[in-house]
Amino acid sequence: MKYFSLFIFLLGSVQLFAQPEATMYTLSGVPQHVNYNPAFVPNYKFVLSIGPGSVHGHYSNSSFAYSDLAVRRGDSLVADLVKFNGALNKKNYITTAGDVEAFRLGIQLSKRLYFNWTVGTKVFARQMIPQDLTSLFINGTSSFVNSSASFSPQLEATSYLESAFGASYKVNDKITVGGRVKILRGIVNASTENSELTLALADDYSMTLTGDVNARTSGIQNADNGDVKDYLKNKGLAIDLGATLKLTEKLTVGASLLDVGAINWKNDTYAYTLDPSVATYTFAGVDLQRIIDGDEDYFDAEMDSLESKFELQEGATGGYRTPLPGKMYFNASYKIKKQITFGALLFMEKFQGRFHPGLSASVHKEFWRIAGVSVSYSAINKGFGNLGAGFNLNLTPFQFYVVGDNLLRMPLSYLANGSYEKFASNVRYFNVRAGMNFVFGRDRSHEKKAYNQRKK
């Protein structure tokens, strides 16, 4: 029963994985801006963060919102399962992510070279809900007669430590290039190499259930007895690459490729498998006569047979390798005035063969040297109402910032409706990042250049 329960748990487990951030990319006054293109150079010659220099949380899903499931009828909140099922795609992904930057050091070594070093921890996950699964519970089995329903659970959950060393180099007045090397130490992982659960329904309504699973974990099976040193066995490496090109005095374009790499898992590695030749069960229907005759063991026997066939086989296994979710950014920024910049951003993430694209438009305003404010509009996850916002406050040597995608909709929803309920029930994409830095030596070279040009 233990492993049958674990199998059911795997079908519904939350899978963490990160998606790109849009608004943070525009907040150029914050040193963490360099995380999204290693060719970027902060406005300060020296940056130091010790403690929560950056804390980030993310949530999104690819198809539905809470309002598709729960609807208000009068004073009551009821579940509308038909509406919910209609809002689903064939495969539906709920994603969450988080990271904490514990340390950052940034130094302008010369007029051309900027160096940065960061240390932090990250976690990412994803949950896939197949529409066939909800259709079976909502609409019954009639729609699957002489066909099959595929329930294909996948699991990819990872947490790891990251130490990143990066540099940007100004080739000339127009071109800047940059890169970062990331040393990774995996903490915990659960991944599914293969997973199929198929229900075939014949015209006589007999049902055949077949399973085929190959899942792996690291750092979970013996977590209670684990040693910190054991987790250092999970080594990985990743790189970031980026470049910017200044086409005119006002127009700049940039591109970056992030998190190209993988982690090799060696600590406490276990495999969980189902052999499809064994994990198959046909349910021909209910024998009413046996129920009438008072056969109390009838259903228990059926369930025991089902459980025995779908019991996960587990055992220690060798090491395995998992990739990180790779991210790509392409941006263009146009400075219409000295302190106002318009931006356009195309971003996407590739993970396990699936692309997650998005588009964003933004405006960023600098308020002298004291503050910076960004607002953005993003189209992502088939959602077209994502209003982002961010600001940084510079009280040298302290700098504080808060930024997020779809963050602006929260206060707007409250002003319009007197509560956050409408926002919470319709949100499909949301992330927020906040932190504090110590900053010194603001770079004023561009200010002096603009001043000299005005004098001419």
UniProtKB/TrEMBL annotation:
Stored Gene3D superfamilies: Outer membrane protein transport protein (OMPP1/FadL/TodX) (2.40.160.60)
Signal peptide segment: 1-18
Domain DUF5723: 38-405
Top-level taxon: Bacteria
Keywords annotated in UniProt: Signal
Record carries keyword Signal: yes
Name of the molecule in the record: DUF5723 domain-containing protein
Organism whose genome encodes this protein: Chryseotalea sanaruensis
